[in-house]
Amino acid sequence: xxxxVSTRSKIGFTIAAWVVALILFFPILxxxxxxxxxxxxxxxxxxLWPSGTLENYVTVNTQRDYFKPFMNSVVLSVGSTILAxxxxxxxxxxxxxxxxKRTKDILMWMLSTKMMPAVAVLVPFYLMFxxxxxxxxxxxxxxxLTMINLPIVVWMLYTYFREIPGEIxxxxxxxxxxxxxxxxxxxxxxxxxxIASTLLLNIILAWNExxxxxxxxxxxxxxxxxxxxSFSSPQGLFWAKxxxxxxxxxxxxxxxxxFSQKQLVRGLTFGAVx
Length: 274
Description:
- This is Carbohydrate ABC transporter permease.
- It is found in: Cell membrane.
- It is a single chain.
- By secondary structure, this protein is mostly helical.
- It has two domains: about 5-60, no CATH class; about 60-270, MetI-like (MetI-like fold).
- The chain contains 14 helices and no strands.
- It has helices at about 5-35, 40-45, 55-65, 65-95, 105-110, 120-130, 140-160, 165-175, 180-190, 190-210, 210-215, 225-230, 240-260, 260-270.
- The radius of gyration is 23 Å and the shape is globular.
- The mean pLDDT is about 85.
């Protein structure tokens, strides 16, 4: 039986939710408003009334080639996500349906790597990438993004796979399905919502990764995060142009998140307590 909630409580929670949402969204809104101001307006102080000029976007696109870092971001985020899924799906299957006494320890160890400060391993990774000739390459950054997001991907898929009845896979084995057929034709179609949400979330995480993409690239493989960083160095005091560069970098992922929010929510709640 559902808990009865008073009308006053509903109104209060709704207002609180909208306030929190507006607070979270306000930095993006203000960056957009600043991007359509003139430089004197941007440095004059806080104001929500821009002049509406698009001069900053033209200037940014003229000074920096936007298309190349944009394509690098697409290749790196999509490529690292596909590679992570190819590794994580078999790993999550093994942990969910053939667990050992060390399975949970391995999962916790994988997640603990996300808690480690990235700067602690910056020098070793930089030297390894330099010696292997992977600095400023799409392949090298794809491997790095795959490694740093793989624990999250494995953990999410593991939680989704655990909700699938093992009897279905046993029935497939009794019908003569091989391990490959079991994973590809039985398990994967049943976990499509979870896999889709994991894919979308990993694309967003890879797109927004800035620490490694800035330090392991210069020009050839630099994504949009490096595009912003390179622009902010000489243009640090020009807030309008810097805001325009930031909006050009985050706009694609904002659009993706907006149109895929239903799938994200559906996948992230898959396996939750109903």
